[in-house]
């Protein structure tokens, strides 16, 4: 509860200091990149020596180490980096282009090394939006980038349908191919476990009549001593079910409304990319309290205020006219 309260209070504090963000964002991003560099070195050391350290986690399904940085597990680190990338996208008028793309490279490579597939997809959304914005006047380069992303998507879908299992002898390559080809696989592995867990949670809510009240904070782990499979921990892997399971319909609907209000307040700063990433990440990883989405969301909303304050007077009048037209009966 203390962690939840600290996140909420931090988001309020960050938004109240939003006028300082344009002057500090480049410095903060640079410092974060130094931290990312340290974690990447830690992963390289672990992978080369085959010795686990504080920056990695051994993957049970392959011979590679998953990067987790200073977080408790890789999925949370991947979610955090993806949301930071989406936040920087909203502040594109402030972040220096070279710094932005350097972060996209280092952050993107780190997200890859977490082997968190939903973060791969979410980061691909941020990257595609960034490429569309940057390369819109260079159609050839844009076409190459988009074709590459489409190829990965098709490769994942075909691999899932054919059920092929590739072994090249390179653990990193094999783990990558295995994750990509299993991206949409819900018949086995992690996808299958998540489907069973969600079905179990919905069954608990229905059979006990707990839809209105829920089971309390971290309720699934309290109701279930073991996971639905021998390798699964007893926790809900999706926030959108967990919020209803823990707090019932009132808490779930209130949470959805809160996220929607955040999104509406950020639309003028291209905050849609951030909240689309959050919705996607929260669908497969319960990251609401441990990946700082509220704090980053407050920074994104602050970007909307910055855009409004710095846009030319003509655009302000046009925006005001559109708003007046929408609200006039």
Keywords:
single chain; mainly alpha; two-stranded antiparallel sheet; 13 helices; globular; disordered C terminus
Can you walk through the features of this model?
By secondary structure, the protein is mostly helical. The protein has a domain at 136-183. It is built from 13 helices and 2 strands; from the N terminus they run H-H-E-E-H-H-H-H-H-H-H-H-H-H-H. Strands 1-2 form a two-stranded antiparallel sheet.
On the 0-100 scale, what is the average pLDDT?
Answer: 79
Tally of DSSP helical segments: 13
The major beta sheet can be summarized as: 2 strands, antiparallel
Strand order within the widest beta sheet: 1-2
Q: Give unreliable regions as ranges.
A: 159-165, 319-329
What's the shape?
globular
**How much of the polypeptide forms β-strand, as a percent range?**
under 5%
Structural class: mainly alpha
Cα distance spanning the termini = 45 Å
Q: Secondary-structure element sequence?
A: HHEEHHHHHHHHHHH
Number of strands: 2
- What level of helicity do the residues show? over 70%
Radius of gyration using CA atoms only:
21 Å
Brief overview, please?
With 329 residues, the protein is mainly α. It has helices at 2-16, 21-49, 74-90, 97-114, 117-134, 139-162, 171-181, 189-208, 219-223, 239-266, 272-284, 293-310, 313-327, and strands at 56-58, 65-67.
């Amino acid at each position: 509860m203390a962690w939840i309260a600290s996140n909420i209070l931090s988001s309020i504090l960050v938004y109240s200091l939003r006028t300082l963000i344009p002057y500090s964002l480049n410095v903060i991003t640079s410092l974060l990149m130094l931290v990312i560099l340290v974690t990447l070195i830690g992963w390289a050391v672990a992978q080369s020596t085959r010795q686990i350290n504080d920056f990695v986690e051994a993957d049970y399904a392959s011979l590679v180490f998953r990067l987790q940085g200073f977080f408790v597990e890789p999925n949370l680190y991947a979610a955090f980096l993806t949301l930071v990338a989406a936040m920087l996208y909203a502040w594109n008028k402030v972040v220096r282009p070279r710094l932005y793309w350097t972060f996209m490279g280092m952050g993107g490579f780190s997200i890859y090394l977490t082997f968190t597939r939903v973060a791969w997809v979410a980061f691909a959304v941020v990257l595609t939006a960034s490429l569309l914005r940057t390369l819109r006047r260079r159609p050839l380069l844009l076409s190459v980038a988009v074709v590459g992303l489409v190829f990965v998507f098709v490769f994942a879908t075909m691999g899932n349908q054919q059920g092929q299992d590739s072994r090249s002898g390179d653990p990193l390559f094999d783990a990558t191919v295995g994750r990509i080809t299993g991206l949409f696989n819900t018949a086995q592995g992690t996808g299958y476990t998540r489907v069973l867990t969600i079905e179990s949670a919905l069954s608990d809510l229905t059979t006990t009549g707990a839809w209105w009240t829920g089971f309390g904070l971290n309720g699934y782990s309290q109701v279930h001593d073991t996971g639905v499979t021998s390798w699964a921990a007893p926790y809900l892997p999706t926030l959108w079910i967990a919020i209803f399971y823990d707090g019932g319909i009132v808490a779930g609907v209130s949470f959805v409304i809160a996220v929607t209000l955040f999104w509406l307040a950020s639309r003028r700063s291209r905050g849609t990319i951030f909240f689309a990433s959050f919705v996607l990440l929260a669908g497969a990883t319960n990251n609401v309290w441990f990946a700082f989405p509220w704090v980053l969301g407050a920074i994104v909303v602050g970007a909307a205020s910055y855009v409004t304050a710095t846009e030319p007077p003509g655009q302000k009048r046009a925006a005001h006219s559109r708003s007046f037209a929408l609200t006039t009966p």
